[in-house]
Amino acid sequence: MEKLDKTLFRLEQGFELQFRLGPTLQGKPVTVYTNYPASGEVFDRQKFRTLSWHNPTGKEDDSDKYCKLDLQISGSYQYYFSLGNEKSGGGYIVVDPILHVGADNHVLPLDCVTLQTFLAKCLGPFHEWEDRLKVAKETGYNMIHFTPLQKLGLSRSCYSLSDQLEVNPDFSSHGKKCTWSEIGALVEKLKNEWNMLCVTDVVYNHTATNSEWLRMHPECGYNLVNSPHLKPAWVLDRALWHLTCMVADGKCIAKGVPPLIENDHHLNCLRKIIWEDIYPKIKLWEFFQVDVNKAVQQFKTLLTQELKRFTKSDPNEHLQIVQDPDYRRFGCTVDMNIALATFIPHSNGPAAIEECCNWFRKRIEELNAEQYRQTNHHQEQAVNCLVGTLVYERLAGHGPKLGPITRKYPLVTRYFTYPFKELTVEEEETMIHQPDKACYFMAHNGWVMGDDPLKNFAEPGSNVYLRRELICWGDSVKLRYGNKPEDCPYLWAHMKKYTEITAKYFHGVRLDNCHSTPIHVAEYMLDTARKLRADLYVVAELFTGNEELDNIFVNRLGITSLIREAMSAYNSHEEGRLVYRFGGEPVGSFVQPRLRPLMPAIAHALFMDITHDNECPIQHRSAYDALPSAMIVSMACCATGSTKGYDELVPHQISVVSEERFYAKWNPAAPLTSGEVNFQTGILAGRLAINRLHQELGAKGFNQVYVDQVDEDIVAVTRHCPNTHQSVVAVSRTAFRDPKTCFYSKEVPEMCIPGKIEEVVLEARTIERSARPYEKDKHFINGLPNFTVELREHIQIKDSKIIKQAGTAIKGPNEFVQEIEFEKLTPGSVIVFRVSLDPKAQEAVGVLRNHLIQFSPHFKCGSLPDDHSAPILKTLFSSIASKLTLADLNQVLYRCEAEEQEDGGGCYNIPNWSPLKYAGLQGLMSVLADVRPKNDLGHPFCDNLRSGDWMIDYVSNRLISRQGACAEVGKWLKAMFVYLKRIPRYLIPCYFDAILVGAYTTLLDVGWRQMSSFVQNGSTFVKHLALGSVQMCGIGRYSCLPALSPSLHDVPYRLNEITNEKEQCCVTLAAGLPHFSSGIFRSWGRDTFIALRGLMLVTGRYLEARNIILAFGGTLRHGLIPNLLGQGTHARYNCRDAVWWWLQCIQDYCKIVPNGLDILRCPVSRMYPGDDSSPQPAGIVDQPLYEVIQEAMQRHVEGINFRERNAGPQIDQNMRDEGFNVTAGVDRETGFVFGGNRFNCGTWMDKMGESDRARNKGIPATPRDGSAVEIVGLCKSAVRWLLDLSKKNVFPFHGVTVKRHGKEETLTYDEWDRKIQGHFERLFFVSENPADPNEKRPDLVHKRGIYKDSYGASSPWCDYQLRPNFTIAMVVAPELFTPERAWKALQIAEEKLLGPLGMKTLDPDDMVYCGVYDNALDNDNYNIARGFNYHQGPEWLWPIGYFLRAKLYFSKLIGPEIYAKTVVMIKNVLSRHYVHLERSSWKGLPELTNENGQHCPFSCETQAWSIGVILEILYDL
Q: What pLDDT score does 1048 carry?
């Protein structure tokens, strides 16, 4: 179940989002649902629709299948997918709004936002607003955040509103009432004329205690009628209020608590009063206890009534207290059914009943005691919280020091409203059971430290109010929404209207106290707001302290930006880290492809140097820090903001509760009077320059960020534009400590800035000036008068007052570095440089980008025309690449270490890492595919590129050293690399990648265009598998294939570099990489012909396939095709199956290739015209292929019996002497091919024992002598095919004639075919019937309904082993099998043998099964030493192709429903191969895996037949 509700996926409008199937879902019936509205429809959160699937290739595999959304509307949208009818996972997507400003409605990018917060009540009467807001306009802000503009409650806190629908009457003046439409008109004016947007808060959590509507609708709060669980907390709250009154009146002095609490002694006395006087008096535990006597009486009555005995329904149910829902004292009860079933009298006599009642009483008393203890814990916490609050408010140095306890400043804030006359505690308590009174006792709101924001602390189940854990706002009542509008209709409707007013007049909202707003309420309200304003900007502050929790809110509410505070940084290093955290990518990042995986994001930040809740940084740090910290924050690649008062250097927090003075107005002229500001005030002049710069960087795409901590106070932030490669570097010297009282060194480290400094964008220093000392103005909010900013903009370095001198150093041929020596970088100063690459490097980048446009339009921006480029660059790369053959592509893209070494080279080795898998481009691309999406610029690969040109030169020179079209590709790369070497080293990885990606994708297209239509129109999976053909089929330095007949047409030739003579250069097929890729071990008969259909015929490489078939045909000897080819001259004829695979390939060639039968008449040059001939050169003895085929058939019927040449350790160190004797023949009765002995292994399962220690040396693990099932199948296929051809007179032979006992006998193909057909199931099928007369050895049967692995083996039990080989016979000769039996056998194979990627080579129930292959292990274990179990369990890939093809074939015969299920199963299995192929750095499929798909280090990483068979099943699909 994929639950991504805590993962954030952020997208911009205009993107297309595609949903693609992961491997586990491919082939399954998946449906994707979303509530993103269909075009023309309105968003409804509850309404989901299904998305339709697109399959661009229309093919049977699902690797390319996707469904999509075109994202055009901002907001938060949900998606989920289901499998069949079961919901399987889902998540959210958040689409950012597009903000527009100005009369022309131009776009304001989110990263350009510069916001300033204003406390609305400090703006004064409405007609004066413009003059006050003008300060924000003149200092370069483009967004204003107003705290709520509604009517305030009694406390005058900006966030305690008494009427959510009415404008604050303070804004009206001279009898003229201020209205929403006037405010709306001003907002519109600011947008059109000042290019500023306005946002305001929405407060959904609480309302002022004096809200008029709350008196009419008390159900909107948590009162004691709808939330009776709060009654005990209310009683405690009243008791604490009465205690406040006593302390305030001096009535507790005798007990050690005076009104002014000053020390721990006072606090301890207060604790004593609470524990000894208050708790015993209010007896809170009684609310949770049972009235013992009443319960016992009731129990007794029930016992004595002669009713039928109650029985407990559940024996695990124990007696427990049932809480009274009305929370009356002793109102709790117990379940009498459980009581009667638990306490049963032993007789009906009164004594027994009395005893029973006593037991019951004892149990109730125990339960009551437990409740008492529980309440005591709550009371302890309550005292601790109360004392903690007192310490903070009265004693702590950093606290408000409230002074004596009075009714205005009580001991602790009251938790509940109490709108009646004060009585005694006892009299007051009677009201809690009178609904007309109790409904007005409402819980206040507040916040709870460390609480789960998704839980509501006022709901039943929470004890926050009883335990006094709430940090309470005594001016606001917490609102009770319930779960849906019907639960509290008035409240939802009222708040909906409030939201509509806000969305109508403002461009965005700030969700106040978002983390404790019920999330479903905020969701509903924001949906309402977005109906009125689609591109609503939503900001919020979340104090969850947990990114995953943040993401839940961002996802569900569609929050655009989360407020982040620079004030949370405890030093400049942390402040710099926040800049890096909240936006941008690293400098020199890779260019990502247009279609790319959607990566999880962090929420977009609105990064504020100070929020209106923060303490004043002047008190916290120093006045000197305002400018540098504002600069650092402003260099972040996200939205930024500040609060009014920061720029003016107001030296105290502007309180949202108590501040009543007005902000100053803008007056550009000097001198200033009280209540006016201009650029001489505070850091206002610096702020304008900083804001302008922030907006420019955002608008011009400077989205790469680098933060450098120069020393403990100096932070340098670089913003870099990846298109133009301009940078802006801001160096800020912070002043977290006051420079007047703390030491700051005069020595500032030198800085090196790479590139050429074009200008100093701005330099600014915070300086003191003579002015009257600061006095708090009575009417206007004023700042420190004795500080200002000395600012200079757009100057040259020589004119700077902060820089002493700037020298230029050259670090390498194309890297300018300017060394800056500072003179006056005093604490509180900043300097910003605009830096370009040096002119030569700038030109080189421009030209490079120009040449990269052919691959992607992305590079147009920042490109320069190339007037002097090398002639080869004037040709498009695609036309250079189009001259490459598939064999050339093998050189350009692939070739492993061993193949390269043959040519005198090798793969590139990356220091501190590992060598690349391939010398060609795929070797580099495999690494880049990992590095690029993660932007892992610290990877050793990138390090190596930055450190020198070695890798760059290797790539081009390797190709140039080859001839022909490969060299042209090398020359093109070399010409491109000329420019690459001229750019700064930090940019080389991203441009090297861009060049390679462009070239690589072009080369792949060139390859696919030369392949069959199956590949060209195939899915991504098919195409990537088809590249296995390019990977495996190549031409080495030395020809592996014996020469073909000179009379054969279309044979490729080349000049031998050494002899200078013409020689053939045919493609050969490597068996696997890296172990079977070069020299004598490259070409194997069996491997070649198992892989040939998939890798060469299905991909359309017909001519090369023909040449391989004919070349191997030329080596026929003793009627066999060699196993190890050894160029024919060093061939080993020790396998019985290769000739049959060869024949199968000829048959496949004739069927797949247009005019394929022509091959039968092609000349074959016989290297060995007789069994004992010496090797003959090509062209001496030529025969048509059909004669060679006939000879192979003839020799088998005659019987083959010979001893290998050079038998002994020189050709095989492990083989015993008898093993070199090769025999094969055809059984005259059954028609089965048979052969081998117990000392050799003539089939693909050819592991020879190698361990002296385990005594298995020279013994084959799997001799498979007798008639191996797959060879019988392949023989049947060949006989059937030749019979068919002879009937059509295409093949001139009708059978085989042999001499026996001196006379000739003929076995016709028809006869032979019938013999095999008639005997196969009789002798190979292990019947379900134990009494089957055909079963010669019923004692060896351990699985029924399967097909034997062989027939007539020298060790009879081997015949009965379950292995996957019978599936091969099913594919090549399906007519041998009864469909129902075949299907049953396939099901057993699936259950027992199918692994994640391959087939187990032996039944796991077999006693010698071992699924882990370790060729290096030498121990005493006969079954596994030196990898003896190579084919006794490990999961080989190539049989899976035959297993799946067999399933597909027989499922069609069983019926449409089974067929449909089989297709799903096959797609699912293949999806694992797709994932492996995509993730493998070899870009291939392995030879084998250990059990359950685990990686096997001894396996080839990519194997020809593994890839070939998967292509075949996809071809069949």
A: 96
Q: Which of 490, 484, 537 is nearest to 509 (CA)?
A: 537
Q: Which residues of the chain have pLDDT under 70?
A: 1-2, 59-60, 306-315, 809-814
Q: Which residues pair with 1267 in a beta bridge?
A: 1351
Choosing from 64, 96, 512, 1406, the catalytic residue is 512
Closest CA to 825 of 845, 847, 802: 802
> So what's the pLDDT on residue 1037?
83
- Choice among 515, 604, 612, 1476 that is catalytic: 515
Q: Are 1256 and 1428 in contact (CB under 8 A)?
A: yes
Of 861, 871, 868, 751, the C-alpha closest to 802 is 751
Q: Where are the beta strands (DSSP E) in 703-851?
A: 704-709, 714-720, 727-733, 751-754, 756-768, 787-795, 803-810, 816-822, 829-836
Half-sphere exposure of 1131 (CA within 13 A, CB side): 31
Q: For residue 827, give the nearest of 570, 572, 647, 568 by alpha carbon.
A: 572
Half-sphere exposure of 558 (CA within 13 A, CB side): 30
Cis peptide before 671 (omega within 30 of 0): yes
> 1062 pairs with which residues across the strands?
1055
The identity of residue 308, as a single letter, is: K
Report pLDDT for 569: 85
Asked about 512 being catalytic, the answer comes back as yes
515 noted as active-site residue: yes
Q: In DSSP terms, which residues pair with 471 in a beta bridge?
A: 447
Name every residue whose Cβ is closer than 8 Å to that of residue 113 and which is 6 or more positions away in sequence: 99, 142, 143, 561, 606, 639, 640, 641
Write the pLDDT tens digit of every residue in 1433-1451.
Answer: 999 999 999 999 999 999 9
CA torsion through residues 1177, 1182, 1185, 1188, sign: negative
Q: Which residues of 925-947 are buried (b: 16+ CB within 10 A; e: fewer)?
A: bbbbeebbeebbbebbbbebbee
Q: d(Cα 1323, Cα 1229) in Å, to the nearest integer?
A: 12
∠ Cα 1407 1410 1413 (to 5°): 155
pLDDT at 1491: 96
pLDDT tens figures, 270-303: 999 999 999 999 999 999 999 999 999 999 998 8
Q: CB–CB of 339/357 below 8 Å? A: no
List 326, 335, 613, 903, catalytic entry: 613
**Which pLDDT score, from 0 to 100, does residue 812 have?**
62
The string of DSSP letters for 624-674 reads GGHHHHHHHHHTSSSEEEEETTTTTT-SS---TTT--SBPPEE--SSSP-T
Residues 6+ apart with CB under 8 A from 1387: none
List residues bridging with 187 in a β-sheet. none
CB 1058 within 8 A of CB 1125: no
Please say if 1171 is a catalytic residue. Answer: no
Contact 1359, 1340 (CB under 8 A): yes
